[in-house]
Amino acid sequence: MSKLTRENKDGIYSLMLTPYHDDLTVDYDTYEEYADWQAAQGVAHLFAVCGSSEMKDLQLEERLKLAALTVKHKGDCTVVACANMEPGWFGQVEEVKRMEQTGVDGVVFTTKGYGNDDERLVSYIRELASHTTLPVYLYEFPGYSNHLMSGKAYGELTKDGLVWGIKDTTCTLEGIKSKIENQHDSTVIQANMPFLWDGYVAGARGVMATPTTCGGAFFARFHEAFMSGDMALAEQRYLEIMLLDNAIDADFNRSAKELVRLQGIRNFKAISRGGAGPLRPARMRGLKAFHDWCVANGLMK
């Protein structure tokens, strides 16, 4: 099993979905099957307990169990997981400690709504990081307001090596570049797919994006081609990713769950705790057509 290092921290961090039974209890058996499948997609890292996992709708014990199961099935990947979802400070400190005990390779801290106050955000992350021995990543989680952080604040947290990377969700090339200009020895990890190509050209070297939940192999192929210097192939892979991104954009994350089911995880139901109903028959038919096209073109199995 791999260990997270400064040398291997770049690359694709596939986000993990959470499967449910019909009564919306977590289907841990299906999750274990899914974790094995994700680890076999050719990516370097898995991101358990993330926005795509519906982490705001999961209880602490559920989040910890999902992280531990991801570690159990990680294969040659490394695993990172959000560790500051509890509402109060002391609860977050306890959460960080317990998340480390699951065996994850790194912890991810959301910006927790402090993005409009650089000084407060920097002091908050530094204090929280003092309670773990693991590598620390940041996540501009849109589930909180004021989630975007400045490049300057990011630089304050990377200049001495404290923070290893950030999931940038500015969805602007300017925002991505501001992080890259202040990255020092960290990795700027993208969530926005239209700017994936431009971000890599500018110096981003990782991905944490919703389509990785059901198509990690697309991103492994892109990253490999780009890093090898084959720009023509890398651009083709980027265009394939854009097709995937557009296919699941509506009805996410249920659309991604349906694509996972179509790829062999048969008990993965396209339901979530977000209150949305089942996918419409026409939507499911469209996803089936996209899946069949991908299979015919060697992009999915």
Layout of strands and helices, then pairs:
Elements: E1 11-15, H1 28-39, E2 45-48, H2 60-72, E3 78-82, H3 89-101, E4 106-110, H4 118-129, E5 136-139, H5 151-158, E6 163-168, H6 173-180, E7 187-190, H7 196-202, E8 206-207, H8 212-228, H9 231-249, H10 254-262, H11 281-296
Parallel strand pairs: 1-2, 1-8, 2-3, 3-4, 4-5, 5-6, 6-7, 7-8
Helix pairs in contact: 4-5, 5-6, 8-9, 10-11
Descriptive keywords:
single chain; 301 residues; alpha/beta; TIM Barrel; eight-stranded parallel beta barrel; 11 helices; 8 strands; 45% helix; globular
Task: Describe the 3D structure.
The protein is α/β, with parallel strands linked by helices and 301 residues long. The protein contains eleven helices and eight strands. It has an eight-stranded parallel beta barrel with strand order 1-2-3-4-5-6-7-8, surrounded by six helices. α4 runs parallel beside α5, α8 (212-228) packs antiparallel against α9 (231-249) and α10 packs across α11 (281-296). It is globular. The relative contact order is 0.13. The model has no long low-confidence stretch (mean pLDDT 97).
